[in-house]
Design brief:
With 411 residues, the chain is of the alpha/beta class. The protein contains 13 helices and 13 strands. The protein folds into 2 domains: 146 residues, Aspartate Aminotransferase, domain 1, CATH 3.90.1150; 226 residues, Aspartate Aminotransferase, domain 2. The structure holds pyridoxal-5'-phosphate.
Length: 411
């Protein structure tokens, strides 16, 4: 693969075992969408399914649908379906709330499980919500808790017998760098600490083995590679062994053992349902349902293989044709998730120019241009056209136009 040509990539598309998945998504014809790591594409089946849930289940059957269409069971049903994608047996998985809210519930619960320890360790430069939620928890608990954020290379040595919890994002949102989940999980346990993995950029992009690695807690995002739609309810995992003693702080009525007793006193449900808080978003769950119908058909190791290939090819082509960019992601595909970041001081404007050329990636401050390769619908030849366009933008200097320098709210 020393010399990558368009013909070579056309050959890879022709023999791609995942190629047929692309047709299950409603992607605009002339668009190359390299942002599936941030908002996954719309499955073609989703609008019809939502129409049915809206018109029939909501419109006709009304409140009876909570029973007849098992609306209240969806958090567990969808959770267990997601659990299969991350190596988690049934009864430990839930789909509910946002990733942010789930981080708060589980981080707080973890501290309660390690009452004599006062440290939570995380990584500086972690996704902002993870850091902010720990800071919020610290403000609430005062001296009882110390949040220690250290750089990636110092995390392992920071874990000690004072550590209650380690919270890390498996695939880094910006660099795409992957933590060794087996190693850090085992290390945390050696010190008696618990671990919470944020799988937001790993879910649906690679196989994960939560049960096998003895992970304690996990959360993840369903609107990225899973394609559950904007704001899709998030994934949450609590290992069986922690469920008896778990105490999560958002003790809403649907986490109660018998919510329809409307008893004045909270009593947690016995299983994973104790991590529920309020009423599930039925329409959002319906969109997630059709997305999982697709994801469940994909072989995760084939998916991972293609994703690594796409990233390798992108890195090689950028290195060759766009030398003005720095590769800000690991070049070793085993240390990289399904996205590649490249940096340039004018990254924002260059990305805006690329988007105006119908190639969508995104920008992460201060200078990261991020490209996500959702292996279910990205073609090998898309990588060629992307780098070709990028090289053209750099050669002509078209990114200098003032319209590409206006900052939007969402970058
Ligand atoms: C996308 C993402 C989230 C999303 O959190 P929300 O509550 O859905 O906004 C959380 N953590 C990481 C690491 C992410 O990449």
């Amino acid at each position: 693969m020393s010399e990558i040509s368009l013909e070579y990539l056309q050959g890879l598309d022709a023999t791609d075992p995942l190629a047929h998945f692309r047709d299950l998504f409603a992607l605009p014809e002339d668009l190359i969408y390299l942002d599936g790591n941030s908002l996954g594409a719309l499955p073609k089946q989703t609008p019809a399914h939502l129409q049915n849930v809206i018109k029939k289940q909501w419109g006709q059957e009304l409140i009876r649908s909570w029973n007849s269409h098992q609306w209240l069971q969806k958090p567990v049903q969808l959770g267990d379906r997601l659990g299969k994608l991350v190596g988690a047996a049934q009864g430990q998985n839930l789909v509910c709330d946002s990733t942010s809210v789930n981080i708060f519930k589980l981080a707080a619960a973890a501290i309660r499980l390690r009452p004599r320890r006062h440290k939570i360790i995380t990584e500086t430069g972690n996704f902002a919500t993870d850091l902010y939620l720990l800071q919020g928890l610290q403000r609430m608990l005062g001296d009882q808790l110390k949040v220690v954020a250290v750089s990636r290379d110092k995390v392992a040595t920071e874990i000690d017998k004072e550590t209650a919890l380690v919270l890390l994002t498996h695939t880094h949102y910006k660099s795409g760098q992957i933590w060794d989940m087996a190693e850090i999980t085992a290390l945390s346990h050696q010190h008696g600490a618990l671990i919470l993995w944020d799988l937001s950029h790993s879910l649906g992009a690679m196989p994960v083995y939560l049960d096998q690695l003895n992970v304690d807690f996990a959360v993840g995002c369903n609107y990225k590679y899973i394609n559950g739609g904007p704001g899709a309810p998030a994934y949450l995992y609590v290992a069986h062994r922690h469920q008896d003693k778990l105490e999560q702080p958002l003790t809403g009525w649907l986490g109660h053992r018998r919510p329809f007793d409307f008893d004045d006193h909270y009593q947690p449900a016995l299983g994973i349902e104790q991590t529920l808080c309020g009423t599930p978003s039925v329409l959002a769950n319906a969109a997630l349902e059709t997305a999982l119908d697709i994801m469940e058909q994909a072989d995760l190791s084939a998916l991972r293989h293609k994703s690594q290939q796409l990233g390798n090819i992108f890195i090689q082509l950028v290195t060759k044709f766009c030398p003005e960019f720095e590769i800000a992601s690991p070049t070793d595909p085993n240390q990289r998730g399904s996205q590649v970041s490249i940096t340039h001081p004018e990254g924002y404007a260059i990305m805006q120019n690329l988007i105006a050329s119908n190639i969508i990636g995104d920008f992460r401050a201060p200078n990261n241009m991020r490209f996500g390769f959702a292996p279910l619908y990205i073609r090998y030849t898309d990588i060629w056209h992307t780098v070709e366009t990028l090289a053209d933008i750099m050669a002509t200097g078209s990114w200098q136009e003032t319209r590409f320098h206006q900052r939007q709210t969402v970058t």
